[in-house]
Amino acid sequence: MLGVLGGMGPAATVDFLDKLVRATEAERDQDHVPVVVWNDPRVPDRTDALCHGGPDPTPALITGASALLAMGASVLVAICNTAHLFLPVVAAVTGARFLSMVDATVAEVTGLLPPGVPVGLLAGTAAAQSDLYAAPFAEAGRPLLVPAPPDQEEVMAVIRAVKAGDVSERTAGRLRAVTTELRAAGAGAVIAGCTELPIVFALDPRPVVPVIDPTAVLAAAAAQLFRPVRLAVA
Predict the structure, then answer these.
(1) Is 80 a catalytic residue?
(2) Contacts of 194 (CB under 8 A, 6+ apart)
(3) Distance of alpha carbon 173 from alpha carbon 7, whole angstroms
(4) One of 194, 200, 212, 221 is an active-site residue; which one?
(5) pTM of the prediction?
(6) Domains in the chain, ordered, with CATH?
(7) Nearest-5° angle of CA 191, CA 49, CA 125?
(8) Which of 121, 129, 122 is CA-nearest to residue 51?
């Protein structure tokens, strides 16, 4: 059973579940991945914790992971890029096995772009300034481009807008402007590195540069991981 550690935010969790269903090869209910969801939006803000000394989300993440394990989950996913910075401690405390959104996304970029071609990262400030994506791409010799400080503020404004329910053309336009700047800087693709951002990119049928959606990539990885189990049950 797959355990979904969600609520960060709720719309992003729903987006993952929708993409998991779409990524699963199924002809009947029983062919789908069995899932339990912990969709608790009370988890303290991850960027606020890392950038501004806000409350530590680790205890809430441990509570959620423990609950999912108690409900029978064998593998967990966290529907938040920045939360992955806290998962090593969560895994050590709970013994949970997490399927990494970051690892799956790095592999997706490697398969999409030729070696050495830069990739842009649109993410919350904590994730953008950390080694979360920077370290694996540096190891692979791939340049990682992040927005200039004023554009990073725009990214954060878009993330906050989605969390507040504003998924409008104006919000999409703000994200498109930042994406255009990354393309001009040489990005061959951009990572929608906050789980709110794919919801906005879905409004744009013709993005200015290829967009890599970690939520969709994680959903595909989860569907593939559970495929042998589902076939055995069938």
Answers:
(1) yes
(2) 80, 81, 82, 122, 123, 124, 127, 155, 159
(3) 26
(4) 194
(5) 0.94
(6) 2-100+217-233 (3.40.50.1860), 102-213 (3.40.50.1860)
(7) 30
(8) 129
Distance, CA of 21 to CA of 29 (rounded, Å):
10
pLDDT tens per residue across all 234 residues of the chain = 999 999 999 999 999 999 999 999 999 999 999 999 999 999 999 999 999 999 999 999 999 999 999 999 999 999 999 999 999 999 999 999 999 999 999 999 999 999 999 999 999 999 999 999 999 999 999 999 999 999 999 999 999 999 999 999 999 999 999 999 999 999 999 999 999 999 999 998 889 999 999 999 999 999 999 986 555 555
One DSSP character per residue, 54-113 reads ---SHHHHHHHHHHHHHTT-SEEEES-TGGGGTHHHHHHHH---B--HHHHHHHHHHHHS
CA angle 4, 74, 72 (to 5 degrees): 80
Which of the following is catalytic: 65, 76, 80, 159? 80
